[in-house]
Amino acid sequence: MEDRxxxxxxxxxxxYLHRGHAFSxxxxxxxxxxxxxRFLVRIEDIDATRCQPxxxxxxxxxxxWLGLDWERPVRRQSEHLGDYQDALARLRDMGLLYRCFRTxxxxxxxxxxxxxxxxxxxxxxxxxxxIEAERLAAGEPFAWRLSLSTARRRLGxxxxxxxxxxxxxxxxxxxxxxxxxxxxxxxxxARKDLGVSYHLAVVVDDALQGVTxxxxxxxxxxxxxxxxxxxxxxxxxxxxxxxxxxxxRPDGKRFAKRDTAETLRDLRGRGVTADELRExxxxxx
Length: 285
Ligand code: GLU
Known about the structure:
The protein is of the alpha/beta class. The protein contains ten helices and ten strands. The protein has a five-stranded parallel β-sheet with strand order 3-2-1-9-10, with helices on one face. A three-stranded antiparallel β-sheet has the order 4-5-8. A two-stranded antiparallel ribbon has the order 6-7. The mean pLDDT is about 95.
């Protein structure tokens, strides 16, 4: 028998929730309810420069307006930085990480990216020991990257990264998916400025919270490969995944933070009810 379902909605409090978030939260919540499972909310606020307490509070208010109920206490990543440091230390002790002193401009130049592209495959490799020693002595900040080649040597191959997709990816991928982390390059597991990264925090939290099915938008489908890699390296259980379609604006574009007239609080202010929103999103109660 399948273990009891545990799923989650994991927003970052960098703005107000919009329809896309509502769709994601409702999907996760309804799955849990239908299958006698548990629904968790996790506030992903490691990036203190972008996250704000007022958005954190607004998220919970909006979720309550949607008619959702979730377990308390809510996990806030900013309160668990030690858990991520422990995981980082384990990866480092396994010899899987190297320091990267690059500036953002150097990184962008290295991948030939326009400044608005934040992350693409990039594997600069460890700095030569003498340069590394010099930069460390000078107190320069650095990120930690995961060496894909060392990870591959350790695992033999990436067959163990397969995952169970219960929803679908952007190209309709569903069922058992072979994950290939190579496309992401040597990912950053600890940012220079934060000492942790999104990928690392997510896998640690999903494991600590006993999440058995990750519910999220298909824009994060590609992130699953590197997250599976981190799970296997850290010996964490493999959750199943339920990626779902994205809710787009009428012009087919994605909602952006600047679409302030389309936030859930704005809909609420205009007298739209949660049931009407459910109907519009095609997700029955
Ligand atoms: N915090 C992420 C976001 O708001 C979602 C992370 C996840 O579901 O894995 O996009």
